[in-house]
Amino acid sequence: MAKISRLTGLVADVALGLPTKAVPYEIRRDVPVPMPDGVALLANHYRPVGAEGPRPVVLIRVPYGRDGAFGQLFAAPLARRGLQVFMQATRGTFGSGGQFRPFTTERDDGLATVDWLRKQEWCDGRIAMAGGSYFGHTQWAVAPYVDPPLTCVAPHITSANITHRLFYEHGAPSIHTALSWSTTIGRQERPGLLNAVPDPRVRTKVRRALGKLPLQAVDVRVAEAPVPFWRDFAGHAEPGDDFWAQADHDGADLTRMPPVSMVTGWWDLFLGGNLADYTALRAAGVPARLVVGPWLHGEPGEIRTIAQTDAVWFDHHLNGGPAPSGAPVRVHLQRANKWLEFEEWPPNAVREKVLNLSSGGGLVAEPESGEPSRFTFDPARPTPTVGGPMLQPPGKQADNRLVEARDDVLVFTGPLLSEDLDVVGPVSATIHVRTSIPYADVFVRLCDVDERGVSRNVVDGIRRLDPRTVDAPDIEQGSDGVLAVRVELFPTAYRFQAGHRLRVQVSGGAFPRYARNMGTDEPFATATAGRPCHFELFHDPARSSHITLPVLDG
Q: What is the pLDDT of residues 296-338, one digit of tens each?
């Protein structure tokens, strides 16, 4: 076994905001775990120096390598707190056998690993799981199904229903996220340091590749070889395709879940699923805690908070340490620079504020009669997007004025705010729209306009329209062909400051974050030609288009 330098651990603890007093540990590398099909998955086993007898185990299943940054950020901090950690490379990655087909084998492999761990003499039968993003999802693939249950889990910045909530958000393929991640996993094991760190040139290649048609094989343009995940993503995007059912666990029996700790960010692309999972867990009676900060996916503040909450969480559940303090829900109120605590999410202490989109381009309390607003979405010049929850920077808030100046974007602006307006909770919109063709997207974005007229995005959402899904619960079709489309925007906790204005954008797309809607029944991966779509957006009292905000008073 290899012993780890105290200096390395000290530096990491300081960076993560953890206590610098640490327990020395050793690592047994390349521990093989046999799977039922004969494949062996390799792991690194962290154990306190001089520890005797069986102890609980924190299992981390990760596709990005068992050493390097991920080991230092997720496994080593727990080991320095005296915990036994088993960090396993998922199938087909970093020495583990088989092929890496993301999300499709994690349940079977994870359950087999837990069963194997419980048979080892150094494990006392108590197993917890940790990790964020993909290796947060590996916890969802295991925790609802283990018998006996796990002791606790910490699935951060992730979702039980990762494919449909992230990669096909309300029917719209998230091509920028999918290709960016495909490129990362397609290049990560190649020799050379540059393949292990973010490269601005690769990001440029991603954006250029997404402008090409067809999209089916653009992974080769960026990763220089086919990437199985991109091919699966591109090939299984159509309504009714059940390929990803094996990867979605939001239908699992949540009463079987152990206590759960979650950390995510308002600009994290997993946010919507994370919060929906938290609400479902609490409804099922599962003890759960939640922290939401002002972070993009994987930002240093998010990683530090994960490390700090994990240290307390696992010490409490595995070592009998003190329970986490404070209310179960702690969220950062953006633009107010303060934290709020609640007993539940969404918070009960909010009221709904409805703002109607008027034909004159305003946001008003009551719907007003007027002519429909019109615009045309042309896939040959797709409506661009800036900012928002992205996998990699740049994201978060951005100046939206250039996008709002386009003729394919409708803009509705409210009056000056006389006092601060705190929006805390889920945001939604109902858009009454008639389209010239049945294949279209409805994209809605809420913005904060400051005293200088700079419009910054706060939350947004998209809904893909398709004849095969037009009878879904969130779409209501009238006899006149007008659709009432409910668009789920991201949740938030955000202060619109006095003197600012609220603004709502409505458009037919947000490219390249989402695949442009080509206006035909061709799969997005193989389409090469598109049709423009003409939109009519209605405002009258019987068909009012509006946005609903959860407002926190006091």
A: 999 999 999 999 999 999 999 999 999 999 999 999 999 999 9
Neighbours of 18 (CB within 10 A): 20
pLDDT at 479: 84
User: What are the backbone dihedrals phi and psi of residue 434, each rounded to the nearest 5 degrees, phi first?
Assistant: -120, 130
* Contact assessment for residue 550 and residue 427, using Cβ atoms and an 8 Å cutoff: yes
Per-residue pLDDT averaged across 24-47, rounded? 97
Measured CA distances, 231 to 48, 106, 178, 237 (Å)? 43, 19, 10, 10
DSSP symbol at 58: E
Q: Which two tokens stand for residue 464?
A: 């893909």
User: Which alpha helices (DSSP H) does 191-237 contain, by range?
Assistant: 200-210, 219-223, 228-235
Cis status, amide bond into 523, omega within 30 of 0: no
SS3 157: coil
Contacts 24+ apart (CB under 8 A), 297-302: 297/133, 297/157, 297/265, 297/267, 297/268, 297/269, 297/270, 297/389, 297/390, 297/391, 297/392, 297/395, 298/132, 298/133, 298/157, 299/265, 302/157, 302/263, 302/264, 302/265, 302/268
Report pLDDT digits (tens) over 351-373.
999 999 999 999 999 999 999 99
* Sign for the pseudo-dihedral over CA of 423, 539, 171, 184: negative
d(CA 268, CA 433): 30
Closest CA to 156 of 25, 275, 247, 267: 275
* C-alpha span between 545 and 94 (Å, rounded): 51
Name beta bridge partners: 85.
Answer: 46, 58
* pLDDT tens digits along 440-490: 999 999 999 999 999 999 999 999 999 988 778 899 998 899 999 999 999
Contacts of 207 (CB under 8 A, 6+ apart): 176, 512
Q: Cα separations (Å) of 554 from 327, 353, 494?
A: 19, 15, 14
DSSP 389-430: S-SSSS-B--B-HHHHTSTTEEEEE-PPPSS-EEEEE--EEE
Of 121, 122, 167, 140, the C-alpha closest to 61 is 140
pTM of the model: 0.95
Are the C-beta atoms of residues 495 and 335 closer than 8 Å to each other? yes
